[in-house]
Design brief:
The chain is an all-alpha fold and about 280 residues long. The protein has a domain of about 80 residues: 434 Repressor (Amino-terminal Domain) (Orthogonal Bundle), CATH 1.10.260. The chain is about 60% helix and about 0% strand. It contains twelve helices and two strands. Strands 1-2 form a two-stranded antiparallel ribbon. A hairpin with a 5-residue loop joins strand 1 and strand 2. Helix 2 crosses helix 3, helix 5 runs antiparallel to helix 6 and helix 7 runs parallel beside helix 11. It is globular, with a radius of gyration of 24 Å. The relative contact order is 0.08.
Amino acid sequence: MIDIFTYIDFRKLLKDLYEDRKKQHAFFSYRYIAQKVGFSSPGFFTNIIQGKRNISSEYIFKFAQLFKFNKSETEYFELLVNFGQAKNHSQKKYYFEKILANKKSKITITDARHYEFYNKWYYTAVRELVDIFPVKDDYDELAKKVHPPIKPAEARKAIEFLEQIGFIRRNAQGYFEQTDTFISTGYEAKSVAITNFLISMMELARYNVERLPRDKRSMSTLTFSISEEGYDSIMKRLKSIHREILEMVREDRSHNKQDRVYHVNVQVFPLSKVQ
């Protein structure tokens, strides 16, 4: 049996439902689906599961009838479709959180934790601070070390959450330390979470450009015209620089001299319509 509540990608769900029904009933074909749902051609269903075509609200309910969804399954399927066809990040975030909040959803154990980790920018800061300063139960002091400062209650929640998901742990002395454990999650959940994180960090960059002296931050801009080949070369170089910075960080950490937490933003985006 296909459990709809384990899915987050409605296109994969439809594909798996089709293959499951096909094994049970030889007559269950693309042509049969087209007749039942009301498509003009059997190829329309192929385009849907391949991401080439979207479906309307009318088809949501026709698919629900075809696969005999009950009321809660139909409501969940509608959420999946709205999430998968969202036109911008705000809509995607809205429907993703609705999916996570659904009482019957079975993706919350992994995806919700990963989502929350990146949804709060200061979780990453607190995790890094644990590696620098002795952190026990003084949440007032920990909150002050974050920039911009957070509330002690937020610092406590961050520690509790990070410990719960295995990102930090208490050592023999009762102090928190980092672990090497990371949550593996589906692409869609990760995509929404990382976009939330990027937006938060860009807002922090704006905050800091107005409040920090230049010797405490580095921000610069370039505007240029370039070919597609030139753009690809820049992207490859940026990936290389990213790896170089990580190696520098690893080397620095090996000496146990770190005394601050930094975040690096590199932003490249078009100012003209890309053909």
